[in-house]
Amino acid sequence: MATAAKKTRTFARVTKGPGFVDVRLSLLVALYRDGGQWVAHALELDLVTFAPTVEAAKERLLKSIEFWVDDAVKHDTFDQMMRPAPPEIWQRCMSALAHGAHTETRPYRELNPESKYPGAIDALRFVPLEAR
């Protein structure tokens, strides 16, 4: 009996060499409300930001990601800093995707053109878990 190969999603590639670290991340970002605030939650890193509007939550998340990458580069701590969001958030996101949620994928360079690490993040895929 043939068994199906398990599909895995690669969200990070880290290449280290003398004096450099090359990182490429593709992030899944869940967008949802919590109380009166919008939440932007980068699932692969478990980074969460809150704001009154979805666009402001996205902007705050971009700044958080930049700080995350900067800290990881300075301290060479990518392995310790990469931690996934709790399973219940992943399940909500995967359910939204399975039910045809309209997603938006944007290159990080376009979202954050002034990044000190423009190649560290390939893209962000925004997944709304509820209507705006």
Question: Top keywords for this entry?
Answer:
6 strands, alpha+beta, disordered N terminus, 32% helix, six-stranded mixed β-sheet
Structure overview:
The chain is an alpha+beta fold. It has one domain (28-128). Helix content is 32%, strand content 33%. It contains 4 helices and 6 strands. It has helices at residues 54-75, 78-81, 87-98, 108-111; strands at 12-17, 20-34, 37-42, 47-51, 104-107, 121-128. Strands 1, 2, 3, 4, 5 and 6 form a 6-stranded mixed sheet that branches. A hairpin with a 2-residue loop joins β1 and β2. The longest helix has 22 residues, at 54-75. It is globular. The model is unreliable at 1-12 (pLDDT under 50).
Which outline best applies?
Answer: globular
Q: Spell the H/E element sequence.
A: EEEEHHHEHE
Strand percentage? 25-35%
Kindly provide the radius of gyration, computed on alpha-carbon positions and rounded to a whole number of angstroms.
16 Å
Write a brief caption for the model:
With 132 residues, the chain is an alpha+beta fold. The chain has one domain. The chain has four helices and six strands; from the N terminus they run E-E-E-E-H-H-H-E-H-E.
Please render the helix and strand layout as text.
Elements: E1 12-17, E2 20-34, E3 37-42, E4 47-51, H1 54-75, H2 78-81, H3 87-98, E5 104-107, H4 108-111, E6 121-128
Parallel strand pairs: 2-6
Antiparallel strand pairs: 1-2, 2-3, 3-4, 5-6
